[in-house]
């Protein structure tokens, strides 16, 4: 039987002709990503290893994206440690405050190419699989060992094939498709597994859409997720194949408190849920296509009174393009608060924090209880859904606006 | 050498292995005094060095905290055998040098108090009480080195010291 894409990448990584699920192998790391939320611990553990140097400074990438621009005295201390460590070790790939979210910038900068093995100190490192790399999250102790040796041990995961045929309806976002996929799998449906995206709908996806799908795969337990334009062998050994029809997808909202709790937006909209905040943020929800979708709805409209609209572009490049194309002007004129690129509001540590009992519709990654502030209630949806909800002040099916504009 | 086994159910969470109020502790011995105390009160005092934990499916789920495996190791537990493990717990145990073995048959066919002999080199579990034998996929040599030398960082340092 032929190997799956993940098996092919990992067999190359350990220098063998073939591998099979369940085996434990030691692979060479092509890229190690470390961000400011965990860098302090990684550096502390690295210093316990009796080896003076990082194995290959060119393969290490540092990001300040979680607490940017330096949000607390403690955060800036970590940033300072990172800058000094990077300078001492010759790590030149240093993405400082305002550069953007690691997962998005790694792809923009070509630091997670097809066939590469990428590890990061973040669960959403699965996002780096969008261009065909094997990318997964690891802990701080392990990352310290990677810095010293350039190797990481991995158990070969079984691979799940997700096959999406057809085309999404015009007024439906790829995020809605992903919400449908997450709903079918549940929070542990892809536990330990590699996820591969195939089928015509996936082949036609933009890099933005692929990034979002790979990031969100983590929410169903995936170890890694990837897209590939490479023709794959039909007889590869998949542990499961799940088929979806893109034409049947409709706008979805994931209700509290799991990203896998997707329900049709039209049903959630019927409940007339008042929101205090709409957030177009994160590596899964503030890509250029999301800012474009929000602008389409917000052009010439205003955010409802009593509602805050927060927009944090995922990277500096996206920010620039949104500036040039006029999206930021439209969003600003509609009343949006526009922040500098960071993970900020997704984890609720330093931006867009909710008060107890407040409700937010967000394009971010998670809606577990307390994710955006203790007692805050988070619904997840597409940028169009968040924008439409911001205008109405209640959770809204975006087709209400899209069809009107499209003349349907 | 055979050791007594202690049996637990499915989905034993890291919060149950070590209640979160003890996360401020860092010494494995101190952490070990509280291991599984809400699941089996007084458990830590009954453990003899080398004893074996048998658990069901999804052992160690929920959190990535390294305190839970450290508490097990600090309490004297020698091996954890389970039907299956949560991904990060499995990695953390190996990286701190606590052998973890996935072997559903051994869990199903053994009872609490049985004497088990786990050979991590050969990939064999012998239930001396019931006179039964179970096999599991042995670890590759480099993982075995982490387990025998007390964890990833220790094994690395030993290797670097030789160069």
Verbal overview:
The complex is a heterodimer of chains A (about 400) and B (about 160). By secondary structure, chain A is of the alpha/beta class. Chain A has helices at about 5-15, 40-45, 75-90, 100-110, 140-150, 175-185, 200-205, 205-215, 265-270, 290-300, 315-325, 325-335, 345, 385-390, 400-405; strands at about 25-30, 30-35, 60-65, 95, 115-120, 135, 150-155, 160-165, 195-200, 225, 240-245, 250-255, 260-265, 275-280, 310, 335-340, 360, 375-380. Chain A has a five-stranded parallel β-sheet with strand order 4-3-2-5-6, covered by helices on one side. A five-stranded parallel β-sheet of chain A has the order 16-15-14-17-18, covered by helices on one side. The longest helix of chain A is centred in the N-terminal third of the chain and has 17 residues, at about 75-90. Chain B has about 160 residues and is of the alpha/beta class. Chain B has a single domain (about 5-160), classed as Aconitase, domain 4. Chain B is globular. Chain B starts with a strand and ends with a helix. Classes of the chains: A alpha/beta (about 400), B alpha/beta (about 160). At the A-B interface, strand 1 and helix 5 of A face helix 5 and helix 8 of B.
